[in-house]
Amino acid sequence: MNPELSGILVSFAITLLIGIPLGKYLAKMFAGEKVWTDFMKPIENGIYKLSGISPNQPMDWKQFLKAMMVINSLWLVYGFFVLMYQDKLPLNPDGNPGMTPDLAFNTIISFVANCNLQHYSGETGATYLIQHFIFMFLQFTSAATGIACAVAVFKALRDKTTADVGNFWVYFVKSITRLLLPLSVVVALILTFNGTPASYAGKDKFISLQGDTVNVSRGPAAQFIAIKHLGTNGGGWFGANSAHPLENPNYVTNITEVVAQMIVPMAMILAFGYFIRRKKLGWVIFGVMAVGMFMLMIPTISSELGGNPDIAKMGVSQATGAMEGKEVRIGPMATAYWSTLTTIVSTGSVNGMHDSTMPLTGLWQLLGMMINSFFGGCGVGILNYLIYLIIAVFISGLMVGRTPEFMGHKVEAREVKIAALITLLSPFLILAGTAISSYVFNNYGNANWAVKPSSWLNNPGYHGFSEMLYENTSANANNGSGFEGLGDNNIFWNVITGLEILIGRFLPIIGPVAIAGLLAKKKFVPESAGTLKIDTVTFGIMTFAVIMVLNALSYFPALVLGPIAEYFSMLK
User: Fold this and answer.
1) Other CB atoms closer than 10 Å to residue 45's CB: what's the count?
2) Are the C-beta atoms of residues 198 and 188 closer than 8 Å to each other?
3) Kind and range of the H or E run holding 143
4) At 28, which helix (H) or strand (E)?
5) pLDDT per residue over 58-86, tens digit each?
6) Which of 33, 136, 278, 549 is the most buried (most CB within 10 A)?
């Protein structure tokens, strides 16, 4: 068997072996049942007491969202100023400068929102203090925010009639103390023992084979990289992200990192079914997401193994596939596998350059982010999927002539309107952002800006359009990966993507929590012979069809102008 294929199969098997029991554990832990991590209770109680939090205080959905938004707003404000003045703070052995206001604006929004779209270069753009105590801290809190909001939806849908969706602070703290922190310690140790730096020393010097003196950045990277993947954050300690030989030194670390970014999103889907005591529904959702994942992954791997037609025309053999932008030690198949997972779960980390992948690979990467609900980020994947569920229930109800019902509650105009608005939000942000950037590039290329729009693209034409489409898509999906041929560290891209990240993160969280809270307050209607069964394969197929149709209608024209047009141009 091909060793690269063996690595993919092993990686996926390990992910399942960890993700399934982890899902059962999360359901019990968040439900307040006895679990092995109960030894953390004294520490958690100390945090509550120190912070003045009453862990037993119930919250309705509005109070829950208020707590979530207040704390995230606080991190936005203080982080913005710290980034601008990082050069005046300690733990800066390499002398990195402070960020400009527009770059600080984009960066702090990106990390608070779990996006980590980096318009700076990791090791030269941020100090050790910023990387460790701002970025790494926010990688824990942003992931915990998404998980806490998902658990609120779980509770609202489990209880027959209630206004209580749980306490935000309890879910938030438990997400860190009983999930993210313990797993991060394990992953960081694996990375450290395999060569990833974990010290606070400054740059190291060595003599290259050419005889040049090279300064190599290092720092406490292993700790950062662990939570970057477990929390589906994706920000690189180094500018090249996990394609950097110190961030991802060997195949063991490659498997570790690719498994780490999948286990929590996968576990949260199964935890949903166990938490609400409808395991079959959890597995149906898991199945739909898995089918969607493989429908993106298989053609991606095929596209990369097929090689580059333009290089083939030159008579160059491509026995291993398309190698441009790939690490030889990793290979195109493992890179394609990673690129699928990182774009469907909103991690955004890379072990190869997405800008160098084949046009159809770029198409599948874009679709993974546009759909944004095939497992998705920590907690938010199931929230995004809930919107499609509500729409599928509504359409199915209309088809059979019954008032739509979901989990024993009638789905009425208010819930459908919220779901419709959230569904339309992503296409609006992505397509409007791409339209604006394309207009500025074509009509104001020589504008007297610090960075002229005409210099944004290294690859004009179809691929250049794809680069701008990818940047807007990645920002809206809170992914953070990029087609790095785009020059994005300028005031235009920093501001427009910063706004897209902010809106694309919080409204799709607010919407599902509001829908769940509104449904939970309604009178519970017991299932009858005429009740639409949502935990069947048939309804799973219906939901999958809704996902496909909505995204095809929204994005097909833009995809035709970018990756599809580029693909056919290479066949000439």
Assistant:
1) 13
2) yes
3) helix 136-158
4) helix 3-30
5) 999 999 999 999 999 999 999 999 999 99
6) 136
- Cα dihedral sign, 537-5-257-182: positive
Backbone angles phi, psi at 405, to 5 degrees: -130, 145
204 and 215 Cβ atoms separated by less than 8 Å: yes
CB atoms within 10 A of CB 34: 7
Q: Which tokens is 534 given?
A: 């949502």
Report the 10 Å Cβ neighbour count for 371. Answer: 24
Give the C-alpha separation, 415 to 393, whole Å.
11
Q: Which residues contact 423 (CB under 8 A, 6 or more apart)?
A: 387, 388, 391, 550
Is the backbone of residue 407 left (phi > 0), alpha (psi -120 to 50) or beta? left
Question: For residue 93, which of 128, 141, 56 has the smallest C-alpha distance?
Answer: 128
CA count, 13 A, side-chain hemisphere, 133: 12
Which amino acid type is present at position 7?
G
Helix (H, G, I), strand (E, B) or coil at 96: coil
Q: Is the pTM of this model over 0.90?
A: yes
Rounded CA separation 237/247 (Å): 7
DSSP states of 367-398 as a string? Answer: HHHHH--SS-STTHHHHHHHHHHHHHHHHHHH
**Would you state the structure tokens that stand for residue 359, as one six-digit string?**
């046009």
CA dist 382 and 380 (Å) reads 5
Token pair of 381, please? 């994947």
What are the pLDDT digits (tens) for 441-473?
A: 999 989 888 889 999 998 888 999 999 999 999
Contact (Cβ atoms closer than 8 angstroms) between residue 135 and residue 91: no
Q: What is 236-302 written as a DSSP string? A: -SSTTGGGSTTTS-SHHHHHHHHHHHHHHHHHHHHHHHHHTT-HHHHHHHHHHHHHHHHHHHHHHHH
Rg of the chain on CA atoms, in Å? 23
What does the chain come to in residues? 572
- The one-letter code for the residue type at 18 is I
Report whether 258 contacts 341 (CB < 8 A): yes
DSSP assignments along 188-234, one per residue? HHHHHHTT--------EEEE-TTS-EEEE--SSHHHHHHHHHHTT--
Question: In the structure encoding, which two tokens stand for residue 345, read together?
Answer: 């779960």
Residues ≥6 apart with Cβ < 8 Å to 259: 11, 14, 15, 18
Give 495's Cβ-side CA count (13 Å radius).
Answer: 7
Distance CA 293, CA 270 (A): 16
Residues 318-330: tens digit of each pLDDT = 888 889 989 888 8
Answer yes or no: are the C-beta atoms of 29 and 275 closer than 8 Å: no
Instruction: Give the ranges where 401-536 is alpha helix by DSSP (H).
Output: 413-443, 462-476, 491-521
Residue 204 forms beta bridges with which residues?
A: 216
